[in-house]
Specification:
single chain, 64 residues, mainly beta
Length: 64
């Protein structure tokens, strides 16, 4: 999977997992460094700035 810029396209519901979440990466200042990578609601990504990237979350591991 590759990061997708919000300038390129915003996530759709089918990009999200069963809980409606995607993985988000955004540039932050040093005081917000723990917020640079987060799991985010796909509908809320449209409110992020242009320096934001997202990708679908990976599938969970299968139980063996």
């Amino acid at each position: 999977m590759n990061w997708i810029s919000v300038k390129e396209r915003l996530p759709k519901q089918e990009d999200a997992d069963e809980n409606g979440k995607v993985l988000l990466y955004r540039e932050t200042n040093p005081d917000q460094s723990t917020m640079s990578k987060s799991i985010y609601d796909w509908k809320m990504v449209r409110y992020c700035d242009n320096e934001t990237y997202w990708m679908p979350l990976p599938k969970p591991p299968e139980d063996k």
